[in-house]
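2024-03-11 09:14:02 DEBUG pipeline.ingest accepted 1 chain
2024-03-11 09:14:02 DEBUG pipeline.ingest length=268
2024-03-11 09:14:03 DEBUG pipeline.predict start
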Amino acid sequence: MKKCVARALEVLDTDARKILYSAVNRCRGQSGGFCGLDGQDDIYYTFFAILMLDVYGEKPLWNEALRDWVRNLYPSLSGVDWVCAVLILLRLNAISRMQSRLQLLRFFRLRYWSDSYKSFLAVLLIEQLFPEWCRRLALVRAGRAVVSETRSVDFSVFSTAGAVVRMVLTASAGEQDAATRMLELVRRRHCASGGYAAAPGGAADLLSTAVAIFGCAYINEELKIGANDRAFVEMCWQDDGLFSASPEQCQGDLEHSYYALLALGGMV
């Protein structure tokens, strides 16, 4: 994933890279974290800011204020915010890998694989905490659980992001029939004007577009990417220097700026 985002920065011109970098840094708060759409420091948006700045090569980002802020929040967090906090603390060397592993096992016992976004972040944690053989075992187990979950479900009910996560998990488990069905669903969500929609008949959005492009590249499945798909991503770039969920939204944010880089990198 980091390599994909790095490729996006390589294809952006120098001025574009500088504009995005400055916009990300303007979101820094007094706590050491980064703000969300409401202007308040937010662990979730801080996570995406760190991912982007890491690709920019800004290692001195880490400071005591950020570490202390995340540590103070950590005990009260759950779900997606908890995973974001663990990943940040790991990058800050502020939490032990053993403690994180034990917490991650608890995360799996709660069967968060049924939630596509929590699953996506859990996979990031697996990559940080476990050796290759263990990661493969976890993905295989999750893929088989997905197959069991979806046997009696109409696939069309899944969002595009949910379908992509299930596609990656089932492909990793060698469950090719299920992975192919999910791939076909994703391809049907493409919009003629560019980008991918979250649901049938919907308008394109940046999250769905990014995960569709990246997910298919991850399992070496080809998507037909045209100039209109890149144009859609570029239209989401707002005057504040950040990317928004769709061209119609005038305020950008850190989360969708990361998705934009993921999409652009996946098109290279």
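2024-03-11 09:14:41 DEBUG pipeline.report The chain has a mean pLDDT of 83.
2024-03-11 09:14:41 DEBUG pipeline.predict end
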